[in-house]
Amino acid sequence: MRLPDKVTPYALSSLPLFVAIAKTLEAKDLEPSELISKMVKKSHGLNETMEALDLLFALGKIEFTEDEMRIRYVG
Asked: Can you give the pTM of this predicted structure?
């Protein structure tokens, strides 16, 4: 995960990806494969996308519904 600092500006950090994931999931719940395929294009690769999803889950901002097999934005 890239955090903004003296060398890495905000736009090149991982933080804009968190916002993109939240906005995408606010519109509708998605299957993990759908969300990942959309976010990999906006990120620096699959690893960064997975790290962002892990952090958002740990913070309680997203959840995985096992019955529907979808990722949901909690807010």
From this structure: 0.85
